[in-house]
Amino acid sequence: MAESPENQYSDVPTEEMEEEELLLDDSLSPLEKIFLYVKSDLVFHRVFIAKELPSLIRDVEISEAVEYVLPLMNSLGTDPEDHVREAFAPEVDKIIWFYYSHCPLRENTPDNVQGDNGSINSRPMTPQRPQTPQRPHTPQRPQTPQRPQTPIQQQLQQLPAQPQTPTSHLPYLSPAAFTPLLHALLLDQNTSIASAAQSAVQSLVERILEEPDVNPKEKELLEKETLEGVVLGIGKLDQEKAKREDLEWDADGDDTSVGAVAGGEEEAELGRMTMMTLISSLAPIVGAEKCARLFVPELDKMSDEPVFYVRKEAALAVGSLAGILPLEIITSKLLPIYDHFSTDPIWHVRRSCCLVLATICSRLPEEMKAERAVKGIELFAGDVSRSVRSAAGEIIGELIATFHPDGKVPESLVQHFLSLGPIRDTTIGITSVTGSAYNTGLGQRDPERPVICAYNFPAVVLTLGESRWDDLKDTYISLTRDMQIKVRRSLACSLHEIAKVIGPSKTDQDLMSIFRLFLDDMDDVKSGLMEHLAAFIECLPQNTRNDYLPSLNDVWDGVNHHWRLRDEIAKQIPELCRLFDSQNVINHILPLTIRAVRDDVASVRETAVASFPDLFKAVRNDESCYTDMIKRICEFASDSKFRSRVVFVQICNALVSKDYPKEEFARHFLNDLEKLASDGVVNVRIALARLVGELCRMEQYYQDSSSRPSQINNMLRRLAEDNDVDVRGFVFPYLSPEERSKFISSTIQAMAESAENGLPPISEESDIDNGRSITQETHDSTPIMTNLNNEEKNDTEKNKESRDMENGRDSDDPLDAIMGEIPIAFIRPNVIEVENNRSSSGLIVSSPPP
């Protein structure tokens, strides 16, 4: 027995149902919506408002936004649910900027704690749990008479109908209004929230410094508060306990701390670590002068920091500051701090120093750079910690690259780099400490060392230049035979970069064998090679290029099982055309392209079709080759496989998209295209209809109907009379007004007669029902005449939708109302009126007579 409506939701609390109804009420003002959603007990409501607050707050009166929305922000920033804070933290900078850009700022002084005119927030707006003001004469929001008031509605009544301050007087805002809120988010133990808050602070600083419309005095106040109050202030929480107390409340006014930040000393330690992280991210933004004045003194204090993870972040901050500070400050201030951290007893700190070594060296003079680089790499490569030694391997390539373009790299650094590869015999002199220090700790058991070496090889070769290739060649060749696929893939991806540096002769001599080796490797390695196939071939001597070109068909055969690799080869065809003369293009690249356009995978065919404009460009100046290419392309138009005929139309479309000359297009292709207007396969006609529509749309071709050749007009007429709705839809807009009027009238007349005679309406579906024969083809091109039976009828809609997507048409195309089936019961044809070439006629539709 069905449950009555009254009992259907009996298990749902009444207050919750009414709250849900109220929250869905479109009559709520933005302020009411913000208030109710923030106060809601449902998490997804608070998540929603946390994301939408930046847009909703723009529709709130600014005085109300300051007095009522601002305290609610603190509820979101300290919400007990992580999802709410995760949604709120990325948006907080937008909300804060709204307040900064709409409220005049006033620095916090004893004289302006209470303004003369009673303007709200002339005192600093530190987050305090808002107490809803009691106003006996505040008008209530209109309520539905038959619905009793819920607790939330009662809260809503307490919102003011008018701002507390006159709208002519904007409320003052303290620059420190949001500092405690930002600190709460930055100190959140949820790392995603803390990370989002750091990004928000960075965005806020960028906007303050770069926004041109900010008043200079207010800009100075904001800059000071953001850099000193937020960034540096979070590192001084142990000195300012009073500020931290303002964070310790939740949405119900309880004296609890939300965000799970440990109290006391742990909070202060986390604050100092966050300060160092912010200094690292903000250093490139704030500039050298502010970094030297504000950040360097704080960094100097970290030398005596007892907590290792604070020192770890401070070491990274040294590198960030070194990237922008002048050399004098680097040498006098930063290097002593760096040297102190480099010998820290905790390996995390030493690893951070290792990671910023290259950045510091890049700012030093050549002699100092060489000395510092050698000293640093020897120190870290011989460290007792495996993590520090691995970091030394990771940065060695970047460190060597800092000597580019001079190329005067200390030999010890080169040997450290080569020691990452497989063990080898060499005649190059190795300085005593360097090579052995690195190998002793790790030996050859660390599988990541060859990966690091392979990844950094292009940078090292670029820095050392062609003259040092012979010293690097043995290690490189040994890496190409490494057992790890990721080593060989990294080398395959960068093979063309090595070839650019060492020149055509050495590329032919040393890299061609490696190129062939990688062609027979695993698919992952081949993929790295195929992505830069043309770039590598370009680095070969011209005679070697010509000799290798016929082998491209063998390359295609080698990836016959992997369509993505064939697609990568097809993407290289335009670049390959640029590297060879017209005869080679016709003899070798065109056959490869034809293989690609006959591929079984549509993506490969589409990629190859797009390369034909480049093929034509390559043979443009050779009349014989040009004629031969046109002949080869036109063979597709008469091919027995419908897919080839579609390819012919697509090639013409690709040429049109690249502004192929109109006269040549008409001379070479229009006759063959006209024949396809009567093709037996609908896919061919759809492709042709799209092309004809494009030709008639483009001004440089046949937009002017008076200049259209007979072939275009014949195709338009035939395609407009096609049985398929998709074919008709592409060309119908380009018929002449008379043809459109005539066609609409005849179509509706035929449909009316069909309805009067009790026949099904004229449509594609009715053709299918009556057993319309469609020529389909198998891969061996054998034609098969298939009558669609009743089972296939059930798939008609699905196939139609799929075909619409394939041909770039929306299934809700407005032309379908005219060109497709018009569902009618009975039409009186004598009242049809065609107006403005549209079917907006006065049709009288009624039920059929009994």
UniProtKB/TrEMBL annotation:
<feature type="repeat" description="HEAT">
    <location>
        <begin position="472"/>
        <end position="510"/>
    </location>
</feature>
<feature type="compositionally biased region" description="Polar residues">
    <location>
        <begin position="110"/>
        <end position="122"/>
    </location>
</feature>
<dbReference type="Pfam" id="PF22956">
    <property type="entry name" value="VPS15-like_hel"/>
</dbReference>
<dbReference type="InterPro" id="IPR016024">
    <property type="entry name" value="ARM-type_fold"/>
</dbReference>
<keyword id="KW-0677">Repeat</keyword>
<feature type="compositionally biased region" description="Polar residues">
    <location>
        <begin position="772"/>
        <end position="788"/>
    </location>
</feature>
<dbReference type="InterPro" id="IPR051023">
    <property type="entry name" value="PP2A_Regulatory_Subunit_A"/>
</dbReference>
<dbReference type="InterPro" id="IPR011989">
    <property type="entry name" value="ARM-like"/>
</dbReference>
<dbReference type="InterPro" id="IPR055231">
    <property type="entry name" value="2AA_helical"/>
</dbReference>
<feature type="region of interest" description="Disordered">
    <location>
        <begin position="109"/>
        <end position="171"/>
    </location>
</feature>
<protein>
    <submittedName>
        <fullName>Armadillo-type protein</fullName>
    </submittedName>
</protein>
<feature type="repeat" description="HEAT">
    <location>
        <begin position="589"/>
        <end position="624"/>
    </location>
</feature>
<feature type="compositionally biased region" description="Low complexity">
    <location>
        <begin position="123"/>
        <end position="167"/>
    </location>
</feature>
<feature type="compositionally biased region" description="Basic and acidic residues">
    <location>
        <begin position="790"/>
        <end position="812"/>
    </location>
</feature>
<feature type="region of interest" description="Disordered">
    <location>
        <begin position="757"/>
        <end position="817"/>
    </location>
</feature>
<dbReference type="InterPro" id="IPR021133">
    <property type="entry name" value="HEAT_type_2"/>
</dbReference>
<feature type="domain" description="Phosphatase 2A Regulatory Subunit A helical">
    <location>
        <begin position="516"/>
        <end position="636"/>
    </location>
</feature>
<dbReference type="GO" id="GO:0005737">
    <property type="term" value="C:cytoplasm"/>
</dbReference>
<dbReference type="GO" id="GO:0019888">
    <property type="term" value="F:protein phosphatase regulator activity"/>
</dbReference>
